[in-house]
Amino acid sequence: MAEHRHGGASPEAGLGTVMVTGGAGYIGAHVVDLLLRAGARVVVVDDMSTGNADRLASSVPVLEVDLAAPGATAALVSTMRLHGVEAAVHLAGRKQVAESVERPAWYYRQNVDGLLALHDALSTAGVDRLVFSSSAAVYGDVATGPGGGRVREDAATVPLSPYGQTKLAGEWLNRAAYGAWGLRAVNLRYFNVAGAARPALADHGATNLIPLVLTALARGEEPRIFGDDYPTPDGTCVRDFIDVRDLAAAHVAALAYLAGDRRHGEVFNVGTGRGASVAEVVETVGRVRGVAAAPVVVGRRPGDPACVVADVTRIHDAMGWRAERSLHDMVRSAWAGHR
């Protein structure tokens, strides 16, 4: 583990100094970027397994550490005290559904043990505000039906994958920690994230749908669709796609929300409230690219629910947040980054 620092700027009142775990990743870098523009001072923690320090401003201190490794808590406490951290955003963790089915124990170690190490560090350093990266995967196969009904935060949580289970366990830990030592946490249940604020921050991973389709088309290959026999209008999975720029704004809103009263353990969907099928997304990518996108259908992936679309009433009422960008906006910005 190592820390690199290149200076910094004084924070404005309000957000203060925020530690972002996973801050060199695709979503994390967008959160860091927006926090800096909002006047916060930011410290990043990342193991760099999928993160890239080039995404970050040179002024941002970076602690390189695996949160699930021995000694992580002590390194976190030292960093928080050194930089005067006042709140944390926790995005670090593993997120591939199919991989979690194949390696469940490892996912629990990475995602749950990593959060436990962070809890210990926050408690020791006296930091009591946390925004937690949860997931719509906690809901499992929501019975929304072919009409694409929206799932509310009080819906049953029956995750289909170990990944979703670890996120739900994280929410439980955050709620329990309030009674134990006063942790105030907001749990943001992300839906499907896409797009980019600018090309340098684009998602080049091999796990999310839009970059997968872009990569396939760039290679002259047929994009793959995992199953077309789901109980949805066109037989392909239906998801709520949220622009990463809107998602980053939800984190800033959540930090401000936590600064208000003794709020704790609340969950909020972060999506658009609109569903798009996998086939629709592939068609949109092809249209933006100006090429024909003729997908090939392969077998279903284990752990994939048929339809999950967010009801976003709660986060709008509590924080005034609402997604602003469309699926076309996401695809267009993702394509700019891919190029």
TrEMBL record:
Pfam family, one: Epimerase
Top EC group: isomerase
Pathway in which this enzyme or protein is active: Carbohydrate metabolism; galactose metabolism
Keywords, comma-separated and alphabetical: Carbohydrate metabolism, Isomerase, NAD
Occurrences of domain Ketoreductase (ranges): 16-184
Its EC number(s): 5.1.3.2
Keyword set includes NAD: yes
SMART domains given in the database record: PKS_KR (SM00822)
Similarity comment text for this entry: Belongs to the NAD(P)-dependent epimerase/dehydratase family.
Name of the protein described by the UniProt record: UDP-glucose 4-epimerase
Annotated source species: Nocardioides panacihumi
Gene for this chain: galE_2
